[in-house]
Amino acid sequence: MKRSCLAITLSASVLMLAGCAQSFQSLSPSHTEKASAEMLSPQESLQRARRLAWEAALLAQRPPHPAERWQQARNKWRQAIRLLEAIPPQTAVAKDAQQKLTEYRPKYNAITQRLTAEEMATENFEQAQTVAWQAAVTVQDPPHDLQVWQRAAERWGRAVRLMAAIPPLTTVSEAAQQKLADYRQNYQAIARNIAAEKDFLSRLETFAAIVERLNTLQARALTGQTEDPIGIEYQDYLALVQSLQSLQSDLEALPQAATNPAYTDMKTAIADYEFALTIWQSYLRHKAANADWLQNGDFFNRLVPLSLIDGDRLLERYDVKVHQGSREAKVPLKSAVWAIWEKADDHVRASRQKASIQ
């Protein structure tokens, strides 16, 4: 019997949790426990309680353990306590029984906490893995728009919180720490994608604002509200195109910008505006070379010889009417530029639609 008591005493440090101050609450014994206690003498009840406590202590040694083992240990502590509580106070062993009760109840509470922690850890671990799988599936087959990346980030964040909440000294705590590092890394990668997507959308909005300004100038020119027939002077248009080119360079520096669904249409639109600029520049060179006969009457017509520009590209991609002169075919600068702008505007709308910008 001394050996059993020694084993129980040595196991106390294993069973007690740091800061465990939960008070023991008496639980109603089962019919089986009542019958068992009534059939034993007080001395036998004390001996059996000590035996159960020793077995419970052995089960709790060298944690962590799965919930089933903690439950077994908890049941033994509970049975031991029930046996001690059934010993009448007037018996010879009543004092020993009360002393053991003061020892066993905190240990029962400690085991209960370990059982609760293990069950919560297992549940969190399983839920975290499920949510992580959902997050990974969400971003399969990129590219994706901002809403998809944000949905994936929300799921990775939840998986991280679930793993981080797993208590230490549980059967899954070590594996949880390993997965937690992976989950945080995945969350940070998604966060970078979200930041890049927001940056892309911001630049796309800037781009769309420039395009809207060109559309407004064209509309004002059509109604005679601007002095220039095209709606904008060459130097101002050159500055706008240069700003678009700068935006494109910034976008290309962004991670995964080239794979964004809106990028191709945006790049095509910028190429259109650049093409219109080359035609305008060709006209200005033509005008400078023929200043002796190209007088102010050309201010509204501004005819550009097809031989000086990429005529095939202009005629194939844009709806521009050709003027057949006595010497060579020409196109009006205004109609050529406006036709290209309208085609570019189609690409801008497509880009905004793919980027889910309303």
Describe the structure in your own words.
This protein has helices spanning 2-10, 12-15, 31-39, 42-60, 67-85, 94-138, 146-164, 173-222, 234-252, 263-289, 298-301, 311-317, 333-354; strands spanning 303-305, 323-324, 329-332. It is mostly helical and 358 residues long. It folds into three domains: 2-120; 124-196, Methane Monooxygenase Hydroxylase, Chain G, domain 1 (Up-down Bundle), CATH 1.20.58; 197-354. The chain has a three-stranded antiparallel β-sheet with strand order 1-3-2. The radius of gyration is 41 Å and the shape is rod-shaped.
Helix content: over 70%
Strand percentage, roughly? under 5%
Which strand order spans the largest sheet, edge to edge or round the barrel?
1-3-2
Question: Which word captures the global form?
Answer: rod-shaped
What characteristics describe this protein?
about 350 residues; mainly alpha; Methane Monooxygenase Hydroxylase, Chain G, domain 1; 3 domains; three-stranded antiparallel beta sheet; 13 helices; about 70% helix; disordered N terminus
Compile the SSE list and pairings.
Elements: H1 2-10, H2 12-15, H3 31-39, H4 42-60, H5 67-85, H6 94-138, H7 146-164, H8 173-222, H9 234-252, H10 263-289, H11 298-301, E1 303-305, H12 311-317, E2 323-324, E3 329-332, H13 333-354
Antiparallel strand pairs: 1-3, 2-3
Helix pairs in contact: 1-4, 4-5, 4-6, 5-6, 6-7, 7-8, 8-9, 8-13, 9-10, 10-13
